[in-house]
Amino acid sequence: MKQPKPSASLSALPGDYASLLAEVKQRVRSAQIRAAMAASAELLTLHWDIGRMILDRQKQEGWGAKVIDRLAADLQGEFPGRLGFSPRNLKYMRAFAEAWPDGVMVQAALAQKGGNPIVQAALAQLPWYHHTILLDKLKTAENRLWYAAKAVEYGWSGNILALQIDSGLHLRQGKAITNFKHTLPATHSDLAQEITKDPYVFDFLGLTDETNERAVESGLLAHVEKFLLELGIGFALVGRQIHMEIGDQDFYLDLLFYHWKLRCFVVIDLKAREFTPEAAGKMNFYLSAVDDLYRQPGDQPSIGLILCRTKNRIVAEYALRDVNKPIGVSGYVTKLVESLPKTLKGSIPSIREIESGLSATPEAPKKPARKRAPRKPKN
After folding, report:
1. Could you give the 3-state DSSP secondary structure of residue 297?
2. pLDDT at residue number 113
3. pTM to 2 decimal places
């Protein structure tokens, strides 16, 4: 379809026409966004209302699950072509109303009157698919609110939301051992602590425990999108094996990032072994060099993250206690099950258990061996 030609040449238009056009375009886009959000909010309200009605009838009248199947069929017959009235989705609506008895839109309204808009209003901003993931994967309102707020703040898709829940992000966020409170201003240290995790989950690498640092580094950069997703929002990769010549000697940084929210460089040192106090001293040296060579006016002090296979918390805390540069120490795992709480680990079979279970599959009964007739004695 051809675009209509403008009726007047640019030369005949007023000088401020470009600014008018830009303002109108922005107004249209804003209206489109508000309309989309209003439609999404209306859909959530509808789903909550339907779920509440089903829930009330089941509690008052003792309706069984078969009623939902019949209701789904009748609604699909009444509104042909309208998606969302499957038995499965109606059950989600019921669970939705049960999870938020006061209603999602009520939560949002309360937030606007002085509650936490980032937390409660986030529920009203998420698409329905995100809500089904929250209902499927999380059991408490507190955890659902936490992930809902993060999904809105970072713009997670449904698949990314599911991935973050599966990795137990709420248990790992901000858990690194650091000295940030003693080496950074108060307003900066809290945000710096929040960007850390412990452990980091690099399950996309598929590496063994014997893998060295260079192989880990190469694997992370070969999957740079997943690596940046695990690091979190705000990290921009500057380079790997950054060369620094200091005192006529050559030194190399494993990975150098710039964090645009913290406004500082972040040096990551990878260790394919247990943390040692010497690693903190080495990182302190690296940060001094980075601040001297790369830090620009307006940048905050550079931060170091030491990622190691294992660590002793007490040893790490002692190693960082009197260091004057901001450093964090975290572990990393290459298998997701390693990062889960002990209460969940037992419910997930290991690869070895799965393989042994497969090998233990009962075989088809063997036919009984045919008995041979006794040989006749030779004359």
Report:
1. coil
2. 44
3. 0.74
